[in-house]
Design brief:
This protein has 517 residues and is of the alpha+beta class. It is 35% helix and 24% strand. Strands 10, 11, 12, 13, 14, 15, 16, 17, 18, 19 and 20 form an 11-stranded antiparallel β-sheet that branches. The chain has a 5-stranded antiparallel β-sheet with strand order 5-9-6-7-8, sandwiched between helices. It has a 4-stranded parallel β-sheet with strand order 3-2-1-4.
């Protein structure tokens, strides 16, 4: 239930808050009809794409080239293959023309010129770290240009990276529904509320304690967990609104000379916490982390030990018609100081357990549906093998488009296939399987200075591009980050996982050769 802001400055501000929620709720009633017509080649509608990363600015700042991550939603330009769909794509800064041309040439069955006529590109000319949605709201003339570009407003909607109060305000300002979770319900994707959803769904979770809001509570939680499990060596501390592992930290207990009494243990943790905590985010400090814990809240979980350990995920959809479905499974590739930072993924997840996490995902989906959650979202697991069996611990719900969302959208829109829930395999219309190897984090200093045009030249010369006839190959993204940060991303699509990884290795070999001097 929505509540007016604490200590509103006036009755007028509280009334505005209530009015905004009423208008937004009315707009959302359009979504079922819009969703039902989507995919109809005769349906005329506009999709307004706002790839705002409306997340914690200080954590975002730790991500190299983060202001180019708005480009990840360019995969949605593939919606232009529907001949009467118009797209309005808004960004903070202009996107290089070559990048737009690259995506338009990927469109199967549609001349790029026809697609380009139905694409409106707008930008804020603003490189500041403020969320893109806030930049748009601060520019009345830009809002008016967006309104003018929307064809058939009653059949149109907004899609975004994640939905917050800013995206709700934008939806109300433009009088367009938002195909995303109601911002009043995104707290179910926090680390604390996520653990409660997992319990409701009957899914295993690591031992832990949630709803922590200060250092004293954190110390007591770490103490309680060690008392419950004297063999515990490490614990993970997570900020409620952290993402991609950037809000995580690791705490190590003293296993050689452990304190002898509960009080000694609590006193030792209180004294040692700031020295023994290890952050995943680069340049994070204890003072900053403690401030974020007080503002966001957080959890502590035991570190899952195991010699054979994986980090799979499952993506689900709760559509505007109320249908619940699993749309993909992945094995995540993780890095960072303790292996908690998302780097990339392989699709599908290992056949030994993909159907098990799919089943767990469905249980969680039904629990979230009862809470009114809408849209595409994902669940991350830690999975440990014991003999021939795997045990899966749900650790995080991401109620937003995540790193595993974009490559799957690319695969789906380029190949016309579908995900088979019986086998957990994606199949083309003729039954052939397709897999991929994807990463957002291909970064080397030697790649700096390469422009999008340079990368496109290299891929054409070496036949690295996606072959629409064979329906396999390499799709590039984040090309705007190349020149400054030496960073880009790929989705390598193959007939099997070995071929997909070979496409990836070939891409890296060729780029290293081309930048060897």
């Amino acid at each position: 239930m929505a509540h007016p802001p604490a200590n509103p400055t006036s009755t007028h501000s509280a009334d505005q808050f209530d009015l905004e929620h009423k208008i937004f709720a009315d707009l959302q009633t359009r979504l079922p009809e819009i969703y039902s017509s989507f995919g109809d080649r005769a349906a005329q509608q506009t999709v307004l794409i706002v790839p705002s990363l409306s997340l914690d600015a200080e954590v975002l700042a730790k991500v190299s080239g983060v202001h180019h991550y708005e480009e990840r939603l360019l995969c949605l330009l593939i919606l232009l293959r529907l001949p009467r769909v118009n797209i309005v794509f808004v960004t903070s800064q202009p996107i290089h023309d070559s990048i737009i041309d690259y995506y338009l040439h990927l469109l199967p069955g549609i001349p790029s010129k026809h697609a380009r006529k139905r694409l409106t590109l707008l930008n804020c000319q603003d490189a500041s770290p403020a969320p893109l949605t806030q930049k748009i709201l601060d520019r009345p003339r830009l809002l008016e240009r967006i309104r003018s570009a929307v064809v058939n407003p009653l059949a149109s909607h907004i899609t975004c990276f994640n939905a917050t109060h800013l995206e709700r305000k934008l939806a109300v300002a433009l009088k367009l529904p938002l195909y995303a979770c109601d911002p009043d319900r995104i707290h179910y994707g926090s680390k604390s509320d996520g653990r409660e959803i997992f319990r409701t769904a009957g899914v295993d979770i690591p031992d832990g304690i949630e709803h922590l809001h200060n250092e004293a509570q954190l110390v007591k939680a770490l103490t309680e967990m060690k008392l419950r499990n004297p063999d515990l060596k490490r614990a993970v501390i997570k900020l409620n609104e952290g993402f991609s592992g950037e809000g995580n930290a690791l705490f190590e207990y003293d296993t050689e000379n452990p304190p002898k009494t509960p009080q000694e243990l609590e006193d030792w943790i209180a004294a040692q916490l700031s020295q023994r905590i290890r952050f995943e985010a680069a340049d994070m400090t204890w003072d900053l982390y403690r401030e974020k814990l007080e503002r966001m809240g957080g959890i502590v979980e035991c570190w899952i030990e195991g010699t054979e350990k994986r980090s799979p995920s499952v993506q689900c959809r709760i559509d505007p018609l109320g249908k619940v479905s699993v749309i993909s499974t992945h094995d995540q590739m993780l890095g960072g100081p303790s292996g908690q930072i998302y780097l990339g993924c392989t699709f599908p997840a290992d056949e030994r357990y993909r159907l098990e996490i799919q089943e767990a995902g469905l249980k969680i989906a039904h629990a979230l549906k009862e809470k009114g959650v809408l849209g595409i979202w994902g669940v991350d697991f830690v999975s440990v093998q014991s003999g021939a069996q795997w045990t899966h611990y749900a650790i995080e719900i991401n109620i937003r488009k995540g790193g595993t969302t974009f490559p799957f959208l690319v695969l789906q829109f380029l190949t016309d296939g579908s995900y088979d829930t019986e086998s957990g395999v994606y199949r083309l219309p003729d039954g052939q399987p397709r897999c991929y190897y994807a990463s957002d984090n291909l970064q080397k200093p030697r790649y700096r200075g390469l422009s999008p045009d340079d990368l496109i030249d290299i891929m054409v010369y070496h036949q690295l591009h996606f072959d629409s006839t064979a329906q396999k190959g390499v799709v590039f993204h984040l090309m705007g980050a190349l020149s400054e940060f030496g960073k880009f991303g790929v989705t390598c699509i193959g007939e099997n996982q070995a071929q997909a990884e070979e496409f990836y290795q070939k891409t890296m070999r060729i780029l290293d050769q081309e930048t060897s001097q």
